[in-house]
Protein: Citrate synthase
Organism: Aeromonas molluscorum 848
Amino acid sequence: QGYFTFDPGFMATGSCKSSITYIDGDQGVLLHRGYPIAQLATQASYLEVCYILLYGEAPTKAQYAEFERMVMRHTMVHEQIVYFFRGFRRDAHPMAIMCGVVGALSAFYHDALDINNEQHREICAFRLLSKMPTLAAMSYKYSVGQPFMHPRNGLSYAGNFLHMMFGVPTEEYKVNPIVERAMDRIFTLHADHEQNASTSTVRLAGSSGANPFACISAGIASLWGPAHGGANEACLKMLEEIGSVDRIPEFIEKAKDKNDPFRLMGFGHRVYKNHDPRAQVMRQTCHEVLEELQIKDPLLAVAMELERIALSDAYFIEKKLYPNVDFYSGIIMKAIGIPISMFTVIFAMSRTIGWIAHWNEMLSDPDQKIGRPRQLYIGASEREFTPLEQR
Ligand code: CMC
């Protein structure tokens, strides 16, 4: 059988070398190309962070302007893509639609694509970064039966997304700068997180030399699960189920009960056992947005009280279960009117740069190999097969 380490969940397996993102889970540190996440989230735009993740250095003003121009230039999708949308049920989950339509991009960008050519990989990055907000907004518009909105390249990345989400052809959509900034910050705080399940999926899929648009679709599928990107949606659904502040203790008890599979969604993290540095910035943004928009939503009151109780409860303190990034991002998105089913789609949009940066890094490595884990076989030992007619 040869030698290998049995490591279910890859708790102790380093799958690659990477110079993109550094995490120290015990200290609550997250650095992108060496830059602390809190500084990036508060002092840089999402597109600047994308540049940093992709190229490794902060851009000069001229480099940034060119990068922004290139990204905003590719925002439209091929008109044929509209037919893919029409094939879906109106009530299809937008993540299901995203798995399909992003994968479908591979049919438009395949024959002339040479993934061993650095410039071709760069163009793939531009295309994905540009088209993800368009596809994401289209998946929402389709579900509510409104016309697809064309992108507006003169707006910011976040502003354009909000325009395509909430704009209608009959009137000019005014982007609220507070909402725009919060949206941009949500994108930044989800941009990359080293070898999480979806990024590892993209790397594994890409390690065989597969089409990058198809690989990103695989990443979207992996992200969808409630233990990963689906947590922000699951968290808001949980808040709805709790419904009122007086029912919180009942749910806290359920979460602590070993015989009950219920978990507090939006709490805990595989790597961060001290605090999630993204959650700290997100928490601050969340409180700012709620205050500035003056939204009175009983669900938000439940969220704030749940946060307070869980942070002071011995079980959560002892098990180091803090609110994670998805707890606060869900509340912000709810406050700015984004439907719950779109939460994970927005996570996927934001993480696309991380996925593509890792895919690019992997293919730039001359020692790159196809990913091929081993297994511990626990099935039947060798035995004689009896043909069907004798059984
Ligand atoms: N509520 C109640 N108990 C919990 C929770 C929770 N949210 N999370 C972990 N625990 C308990 C768990 O029951 C276990 O208890 P015991 O030691 O008595 O068996 C202990 O804490 C350790 O849990 P684990 O499942 O072994 O830890 P993990 O590192 O494998 O899981 C996690 C991490 C994020 C999957 C888990 O904390 C969880 O399911 N959280 C809720 C889902 C969630 O919010 N996920 C988003 C993660 S952040 C976004 C992203 O990176 O995708």
Summary: The two ends are 32 Å apart (CA to CA). The first helix runs from residue 37 to 43. The mean pLDDT is 93.
